Amino acid sequence: MDTQRTGQGILSGSSLALLILFAAGVLLWLVLGAATGLGETTAFGLYVAAFFALMAAGAGLLIFSALPDTLGFSALQPLSGKANLLALACLVGGGLFILADVGSPLTLWRMLTGPNVSSPFVWDLLFFAAAFVLGAAFLPVSLQKREAKGLSWVLSLICLALLVVEGSIVATVWSNPLFVAGFVVTGLLAGGALLLWLAPTDSPPELIRPLCTTLASLIAAWLFFSLLDPLTALFLGATEVGETARLILAGPYSPLFYVQILILGVLPLVQFARKKEAGLTYGQGVAAGLVLLGVFVDKYIVLVPRQMNPAIAFPSTPFTAGPAYAATVAEWSLTIALLALVGLLYTLAARTMIREVPAAAQLPFEQRRVA
Amino acid sequence: MRYGMVIDLDRCVGCNACTVACKAENGTPPGIFWQRMLLTERGRYPFARLEATPLPCMHCEEAACVKVCPTGASSKRKDGLVLIDADKCIGCRYCMVACPYGARSFNSGARPYYPGKGLTPYEKVRYQEHPAGKVEKCTLCSQRVDKKEEPACVATCIAKARFFGDLDDPNSEVSQLIARKGGYQLLPEKGTKPQVYYVGGGKRRWIRRELAKASSAAQVSLS
């Protein structure tokens, strides 16, 4: 992912590989019947989970890219432009997942042209659109490492609001307001993990150390929000909530829950909490990958019907003893294709935009002003 | 004017005449029930009994489905009926997630009542009223109400357990029944203010738990 260090040849190769993956995925999806989300019996499926995961990553990255201006974290300045570009690619990918879910541009157009302002879905779309527009407006600022305090604060707050609105949609389904906090945390986690992937391997400790500490703190917060509810519910005894908690912790759904705790919680936490003097390590890169996978799993199991909690009555889903939905090969192929497209968009944009930054603009803002 | 319904659970015998009348009036496809019947076994042998609770759409004053619908396809008429505009519905099913009563169904496509035989001429005509990929639900028979007729379920109820009228009129039969027999709504804690009231039935508190799986339970009991 390190575009500045990888060189022209490798970058072209990775772009080509992503292009082939994208084309193959779309082709397979078309051959297998071009499944869309809303046409299926299960309303909330893989596309919706992927949309929420990309929204989390995009919003989280934008908040991190604005950090040099909002909280004065100047060590992050060299990565701000890259983070902004990748965030925009994630938001484009998220938009395409929504299109895949609703099935036709006309349906999406109906949502945009006849919105019901009391609907959280509409607020989700509005904040998504606002985050994209503001992120695009922030791009020249982050690439040229200029200062724009007002814009960076507005961008950060809009991204935060996007995560809160998405968390509140899921909180309604689960009747659990903790999901709002959980969505904010997973958004920042996804953004931070991607940022670590974007960092050069010889990054200074002033960048890597606080980033790893932040990620470790966010993971601890996520573990707190994820474990608090089922563990306290256990004390409710033979009630419906208590029974649900038991099913999550020790029932047929518990393997998914513990896999999530392991890959998004324990394993990366151990890695990020270690004290390191040198730059970015291989283990930290792997831990960041686990966090990204964990965020995707997190969205999948809280959004897709009965992947973890059998008590949730999702629409059009028969009551079953185990998970009621398994994504089809067609859905997986389009999901992989669109994720490849996100990577492709980023690599192409980074190649054309980041390399054109004049050397003088690499200087810290204060020095440029003096010059 | 605020149309509403009262269902007397002491009179309801669970015969499902309302369910069938609803299907005949509205021509709903297999698996889709605008009027559902929740059948629940209570007590232990030899004192076990089956209790029936009819579940139409509650046409709530503060309808959660109307609030969450992203396109405004679900809306509330001035006379209190909550209706769905199929042209505006995109089939996202957020309304189904929001509705605490499980009153809505998703129509995934025209299915024949006689598998392998194709659609009958009747089905071909009636299914035009039920476009695929849309959410649908009880309309309190708005087509009949507009002609000053009662909903089909009320007109057909053998036990005379259902009553329809204006909740804003204190002299209407429904208002009188609610006042006289202590009418109550289902899941009042949800704040949706249903316009369907129940009387009798010992204020079934267990219904809260049963409603969570109402859609599947009711359909299993009917299939």
TrEMBL record, chain A:
Subcellular location: Cell membrane
Membrane topology of this protein: Multi-pass membrane protein
Cross-referenced InterPro entries: Electron_transfer_protein, NrfD-like
Recorded family membership: Belongs to the NrfD family.
Xref: Pfam families: NrfD (PF03916)
Main location: membrane
Full protein name: Polysulfide reductase NrfD
Segments crossing the lipid bilayer: 12-32, 44-64, 85-109, 121-141, 153-174, 180-199, 211-236, 256-273, 285-304, 324-346
Cellular component GO terms, alphabetical: plasma membrane
Coiled-coil regions listed in the entry: none
Keywords of the record: Cell membrane, Membrane, Transmembrane, Transmembrane helix
Species: Tectimicrobiota bacterium
Protein origin, superkingdom: Bacteria
From TrEMBL, chain B:
GO molecular function terms listed in the Swiss-Prot or TrEMBL record: 4 iron, 4 sulfur cluster binding; metal ion binding
Pfam families: Fer4_11, Fer4_2
Transmembrane segments: none
Keyword field: 4Fe-4S, Iron, Iron-sulfur, Metal-binding
Boundaries of every 4Fe-4S ferredoxin-type domain copy: 3-32, 48-79, 80-109
Domain of life: Bacteria
Protein name listed in UniProt: 4Fe-4S dicluster domain-containing protein
